[in-house]
Amino acid sequence: MKLDDMYEPNRRGDAAREGGRQPAEGGAPLADREVPLAPVATFDHIHRWLDGEAPEPSGARGDTARSVEFWRRLEEETERRRRVVTPPYVASRIMAALPEPGSTTAVAPWWKKDVQLSPATIVALALGAFSLGVLAMRFMAR
Amino acid sequence: MKSTAPADQVAQADADQAIIARVLAGERDAFSILIHRYSDPLFRHALGMTGSPDVAEDILQMSFIKAYSHLAEVRGRFDAWVFRIVANGCKDWLKNIRRTHLSYDEDDQPTGYANPEEELDLSELRSDLDRALQTLPVSLREAFIMKHVEGRSYEEMADLLSTTVGALKMRVHRAREALQALLEEKYA
User: Fold this and answer.
1) How far apart are the CA of B96 and the nearest CA of chain A, in angstroms?
2) Domain regions of chain B by residue span
3) Using alpha carbons only, what angle is made at residue A127 by residues A126 and A129, rounded to the nearest 5 degrees?
4) Which residues of B touch A101 (CB under 8 A)?
5) What sign does the CA torsion over A100, A104, A108, A110 have?
6) A107/B72 touch (CB, cutoff 8 Å), yes or no
7) pTM of structure
8) Would you give per-residue pLDDT tens digits along chain B (188 residues)?
9) Is this prediction's ipTM beyond 0.85?
10) Best interface-test mutation with B: which of A77, A103, A113 has the largest number of B CBs within 10 A?
11) Which of A8, B76, B97, B172 is buried most, with the most CB atoms less than 10 Å from its CB?
């Protein structure tokens, strides 16, 4: 049985044993080197992209790529809707429907408006007040 | 009601107050300046919420008449105040329509298309998006429309809806996920 000498100089694990690959410059083992990964477009990244807080995800695959493509298409439609304007006749229609200029009640708050009561309303209010007074006196007489 | 810097907003609010003073002094036609200034974003909001141009026009008209009738009560920004009138008008309309119409049920959902790879038809996307939006709860739909169709910032939305940026982000994210679940099969 042959055992590897783990302390043997100038040999660095499996990579060196394979023969063709040499250790990196500076002596760091290949396994310890950081390899930059392509940015992973998670749904959180897509939200941040749609919120304008991150660039458009690139290099996405599978479901994420489908999501990015979907939102690209939907953004085209929402962009179109963002350019929608009010039909030109609406402003004149609104102006024509506003209360008459002579009417001070049109723009005055409710507490500044004149109170208008019909004779029937005044009689009804008086009768109500009288009835309440009678009831109160009976209650106090007990 | 575009996204503007705070200094611009102050200047805009001052300009609006000057117009309001003219209207209250009897210069009725000055109100048309406010209509022209704010009708587009308000119309887009009403259209997005109701899905109907006719209804959006009616809500806009009712809202501006209400604003005119209570103009002396405006405190602070006119644009934010009139936005709330329109937003409430949309919510009231949606409440009433739900009482009288069946909701959008499972059979109407855009699933099971015969040929998902077929060329995208833009008008179809429009109607599918409208139908999908109608299925969202009102608060999610409102947040999505304000963010994606009106192009507002979360800060502006929070100001107009009197809520927090975090809550609005959550609503927009949930709306996106719901819309994607409804439409992705066909459009992704």
Assistant:
1) 23
2) 1-101, 113-188
3) 65
4) 26, 28
5) negative
6) yes
7) 0.68
8) 444 556 777 888 889 999 999 999 989 999 999 999 999 999 999 999 999 999 999 999 999 999 999 999 888 899 999 999 999 999 999 988 866 654 433 334 333 334 444 445 667 888 889 999 999 999 999 999 999 999 999 999 999 999 999 999 999 999 999 999 999 877 76
9) no
10) A77
11) B172
Interface touch A95/B40, C-beta < 8 Å: no
Min distance B165 CA to chain A CA atoms (Å): 12
A107, B35: Cβ pair inside 8 Å?
A: no
* Domain boundary assignment for chain A: 43-82
The single residue listed with the structure tokens 């609104």 is A94
CB contact under 8 A, A90 and B61: yes
Tell the CATH topology of B1-101. Rna Polymerase Sigma Factor; Chain: A (1.10.1740)
Q: Give the residue carrying structure tokens 């290099």.
A: A59
Domain B113-188 -> CATH class = mainly alpha
Output the six-digit token pair for B47. Answer: 């259209």
Angstroms from A38 CA to nearest CA on chain B: 22
Q: How many CA atoms lie within 13 A of B147 on its CB side?
A: 26
